[in-house]
Protein: Sugar transferase
Organism: Streptomyces kanasensis
Amino acid sequence: MTTESTSTSGAHTTRAAPAPAAGGLVLAPQRGARGRTAAPRPRPVPQAPFVAALVAVECAAVLPAATVLTPGQRSAVLLLQLTACAVALHACAGLYRPTALGAVRAGRYAGLLDELPALAGRLAVVWCAAAALLAARSPEQVLVPGTLAGAYALHLAVVATGRAAVHHRRRRVARDQPCAALVVGAVPAAQHLAALLLQHPEYGVRPVGLVGPAQDIPQPAGAEPSTGPALPLLASPEEVQRAVIQNGVQDALFVPGDEGAPRAEQLALLRRHGCATWLVGPPARVGAPSPGAAPDPMGRHLWGYAFRLLEAPGPRPGRAAKRALDVAGAGLLLLAAAPLLLLCAAAVRLADGPGILFRQERVGEGGRLFTLLKFRTLRPADEHEAATRWSVAHDERLGTVGSFLRRTSLDELPQLWNVLRGDMSLVGPRPERPYFVDRFSRLHGDYAARHRMPAGLTGLAQVHGLRGDTSIEDRCRFDNHYIDHWSLGQDVRILLRTAATLIRPAGS
């Protein structure tokens, strides 16, 4: 297997893209201590208080509407039923959750006029249902049409006014606390979009960098030197990672180019760092909503540019059953192997001192990072060796205990906890470190496709002997074949074959 450590990234010098023409992109850097340039870290816009405020508006709005009712019609039970039904229907309609563009604040939330038809229709259903229940329970307290219409109109007016105030406050916060974003694509088009977003802070987006290959930097002949600082061009995965961490980037805006769809490796890289990915551009390039989907409100755009979420591949049918198998299997195996886990832990402690477990950053489903657990079998010389050395199976520093654990694969037992947590599955492609994921993705075009399903303790490649220092191309082919032909029965067969191979351990 691979060297034990938490992977780290080295420092790289960031190149700056040239400044755009007049009226274009200008972003002044902030000066930190000792004159060094430091990117400002944005404060994330808190979402929970706004959601709570919207729910509070719904709860309070029923009280003014109740003043229209007679004392006999006004009951605590009726008011509670009205409030609960309104909140439930509005939640089902998505009126409490973000509807567009991740942390791009102004485009993220529909305006009141966009919401008004949904609010009016659902409140009408609520009041009609309340009138029917009241008539069935107490015929003498039936709501006459005039009273019903007045209560409904007052309820709708208070809800609309309250939600308008919440949206106004949210837009102010978005403008005052813009969200950091990266713009991805050909440099001229990316610069143009970044310039527009900086010129229009009402959208709540602050571009902090351009992501693209270095050769895309335009170098016009006779160009005058830049009169102001420009956004940095991030051409390597290390530069992108550093920009995401330093600026708290939550979104990546892809500008469609002549090649059409964004590059798969760029999508995987930014999703790996937790960024929501969006396609921003003219409607013809961005594409129409999927058939049957509700059209976006007219007001949802970025200065006339359409946008849509670049969704990661959705869950496949049967994933719930696979997860149930993982939870049941990992739970039972952890209970059954508890004595063995204690023996392994004691052996590692006696042979190698403190630090029984080690934690190593690996790439899981959708490019997301998680911390993998294993029994420690040796201590690497430094973090660079741990992050970049491929195999230590025959390292002279391996002691008797470490060699035994690796040869029998007992060092992998703590990963049952990763399975129980949902970081991994019992069966799937083996997870790898970010350094090697980037390297193998460049060498093998289908390598990134392995991240379509959760990483696994074992997989189709492993039961065919592809463990340790074996062909990455072969592993990639087996892993993608497994994903393309997945079934729950196949998982069970791979687990049984893995159990059989443990009788004749091959080592790692």
Remarks:
- The chain has three domains: 48-174, 178-215+231-311, 319-501.
- Residues 1-46, 99-109, 214-229 have pLDDT under 50 and may be disordered.
- Residues 145-176 form the longest helix (32 residues).
